[in-house]
Design brief:
This protein is an alpha+beta fold and 494 residues long. 62% of the residues lie in helices and 7% in strands. It has a five-stranded antiparallel β-sheet with strand order 1-5-4-3-2, with helices on both faces. Strand 2 and strand 3 form a beta hairpin. The longest helix is centred in the last third of the chain and has 29 residues. The two termini are 54 Å apart.
Length: 494
C-alpha cells in the first residue's frame, strides 16, 4: 500500500535489446488487451489511464524510456492519500502483459503495429507524457519537500509555511495548541461579526491564516498541499495566489453574512475555493479529456460531501465559509478560462484579474454595510444595563443600621423604578433581529428583571406590613433570581 501526494508505485522493465519502436508496438498491444485508455504516445514513452470503477477514480500510468529500460509508473489521479495497493497491481499487471505479448505477438501483427506507429505525428516528438498535475506531485520526494519552493510549486509552499509560522507564533504567545479560546482567536484576527462590521474588515483575510488547534491546522494544510499540487501548475503563480486570497475573502464574507455569533477561523474557505476553480476547469473541458475524466469524479465526490456536510448540526463547522469560498472559486475559474486559452495575451489576463478583484472588493463593502451590527449594539445595551443594575441594587449595600424608612425609600424611589426601566430596555431589544444566542440571553434577562421586581415589591410590602410573613415568597424569588443568573453563567454570558 502506497502513501503520498498522490500515492504511486514504479518498477523498471529491461528492454534487453528491444528498440523503442518495437517496444511501443508491444506495449500498445498490451494496453489494448488490458482495456486501458491510451492518452499519448511519443518517443519519450506512453501515457495511459485505467478505467474508472467503484474501486478507482482512474490511475495515471506512464511508461518512460531510460537507458536500456522502461520505467513503468502508476499514480493516483484523484484526491487520495492511500492507494490500497492499486498502483502496484497496475504496474505489475502491465509488465506481465507486456512480457506475455512479447512472447506471443506474431510477426505479421507486429509489423502492422509498427506501420501504424510510423504514421503518428507525435512519435518522434519529445512530448511531456504526464499532466502538470502529476509532474508537480513528483516534486514531493520526501516530507520536507512539501515546504520547498520549486518550479510550478511556488505559492502553495509559501501559503503552507505562512500558516505554520502564524500558528507557531501564537503558541509562543501562550495560545493553546489544541483548543484556543474564543477570546484568543478574536485577539489574533478571527472573523467575528461585532468587530468585522465595526470597521475591522481586515479580519476577512487574517481569519484565513488562523486555526483552532493543531488538528484543524493539519487537516487544512493537507487539503491545501493536495489542491495546490493539482491546480497551481495549471493556473500559474499569480492566478493561483489571487484565486486563493479572493476565495478566502469570499468564504469569510459568507460566514459573516450567515453566522450571527460564530468566531470563524481557518483556511478551509480558501481551500474550498481552489476546489471550485478546479471544478470549473474540469467542467469547461480546459484540461485533457483523460485528466478531466480522472479528476472530475473525485472532485464531484468532494463537492457532494461538502453539500451533505452542510446539513449536519455541528456548530463548530463553518459551512457558510466553505460554500462561500467554493462559489467564489467556481466563478473565478470560469472567468479566467479565456485567459488560460490565450496565455500570451497579458492585457486580457490582467484585465480579467483586475475586474474580479474590484468586483469582490465592491461586494465586500456592500455586504459589510448591509449587515446590521446587532451584536455590537446589544453589547452596548448590556453595558448600560450593568450600570443601571448596579444602581438598582444599592439597597443591598446600605449600612445594616439603616432604618426601615431609609430602606423603603431606596426600594420605592430608586430600586423599583430602575428595575422597571431595565425591563422596558430588555423588551425593546426584541424589535431587533437578535442572533439565537443573544435572544436566549435576552429572555433570561427579562425573567431576571421580573424576578427582581417581584422581590423588591415583596420587600416593600414587608416594610409596610411588618406583622405579615413574606419570608417564603422572598426565598422563592431569591432562588428564582439565582436560577436565572446560573443560566447566564452556563452560557458564558455573565
Amino acid at each position: 500500500m502506497a502513501f503520498g501526494f498522490s500515492p504511486q508505485y514504479a518498477q523498471d522493465y529491461q528492454l534487453e535489446g528491444l528498440d523503442r519502436e518495437h517496444f511501443l508496438a508491444i506495449a500498445i498491444e498490451a494496453i489494448d488487451r488490458l482495456e486501458l485508455k491510451l492518452s499519448k504516445v511519443s518517443s519519450s514513452g506512453i501515457l495511459v489511464y485505467t478505467k474508472m470503477s467503484a474501486y478507482s477514480w482512474a490511475e495515471e500510468i506512464t511508461l518512460t524510456f531510460g537507458i536500456d529500460k522502461v520505467t513503468v509508473r502508476s499514480q493516483c489521479a484523484g484526491n487520495q492519500l492511500f492507494d490500497w495497493g492499486k498502483n502496484k497491481r497496475n504496474v505489475q499487471n502491465l509488465i506481465l502483459e507486456i512480457k506475455h505479448v512479447r512472447r506471443i505477438l506474431k510477426e505479421e501483427k507486429l509489423q502492422s503495429k509498427l506501420q501504424a506507429l510510423s504514421q503518428l505525428e507525435t512519435l518522434h516528438e519529445e512530448l511531456p507524457l504526464i499532466a502538470p498535475t502529476s509532474s508537480a506531485k513528483d516534486k514531493i520526494s520526501h516530507f520536507f519537500s512539501i515546504f520547498r519552493i520549486t518550479e510550478g510549486y511556488r505559492v502553495t509552499p509559501i501559503l503552507v509555511n505562512l500558516n505554520l509560522v502564524v500558528f507557531v507564533i501564537m503558541l509562543f504567545a501562550g495560545v493553546s495548541c489544541f483548543q484556543p479560546s474564543v477570546d484568543e482567536l478574536v485577539r489574533w484576527g478571527a472573523n467575528y461579526r461585532e468587530f468585522t462590521l465595526a470597521g475591522q474588515g481586515w479580519r476577512l483575510l487574517t481569519a484565513c491564516f488562523l486555526h483552532a488547534g493543531i488538528f484543524h491546522l493539519i487537516f487544512n494544510l493537507y487539503a491545501l498541499i493536495y489542491i495546490g499540487l493539482l491546480l497551481e501548475p495549471h493556473l500559474g503563480t499569480v492566478r493561483f495566489l489571487i484565486a486563493y486570497l479572493l476565495a478566502g475573502i469570499g468564504g469569510s464574507l459568507a460566514s459573516l453574512w450567515w453566522n450571527d455569533y460564530m468566531v470563524a477561523v481557518g483556511a478551509s474557505g480558501a481551500i474550498f475555493g481552489m476546489y471550485g476553480v478546479f471544478l470549473a476547469l474540469l467542467l469547461s473541458k480546459t484540461l485533457d479529456k483523460n485528466i478531466q475524466r480522472a479528476f472530475l469524479t473525485s472532485t464531484l465526490v468532494f463537492v457532494i460531501y461538502m453539500v451533505l456536510n452542510a446539513f449536519k448540526k455541528e456548530t463548530n463547522i463553518d459551512n457558510a465559509a466553505h460554500f462561500g469560498g467554493f462559489l467564489t472559486g467556481l466563478v473565478f475559474g470560469f472567468a479566467i478560462i479565456p485567459s488560460l486559452k490565450r496565455p500570451k495575451n497579458q492585457v486580457l489576463n490582467a484585465s480579467i484579474l483586475l475586474v474580479l478583484i474590484v468586483f469582490l472588493l465592491t461586494t465586500s463593502v456592500f455586504i459589510i454595510r448591509s449587515i446590521p451590527n446587532n451584536i455590537a449594539r446589544y453589547n452596548h445595551f448590556l453595558k448600560r444595563f450593568g450600570v443601571i443594575e448596579k444602581a438598582a441594587l444599592k439597597v443591598y449595600r446600605l449600612p445594616k443600621e439603616s432604618s426601615d424608612l431609609t430602606v423603603y425609600n431606596e426600594v420605592n424611589n430608586h430600586g423599583l423604578p430602575k428595575w422597571h426601566r431595565m425591563l422596558s430596555l430588555v423588551r425593546d431589544q426584541y424589535k431587533y433581529e437578535l442572533p439565537t444566542q443573544l435572544l436566549r440571553r435576552n429572555q433570561i434577562l427579562e425573567r431576571y428583571c421580573q424576578g427582581r421586581i417581584k422581590s423588591f415589591e415583596l420587600i416593600q410590602k414587608a416594610l409596610l406590613h411588618p406583622d405579615e410573613d413574606y419570608n417564603y415568597e422572598l426565598n422563592y424569588y431569591k432562588q428564582y433570581i439565582m436560577s436565572q443568573l446560573e443560566q447566564m453563567q452556563a452560557m458564558n454570558l455573565k
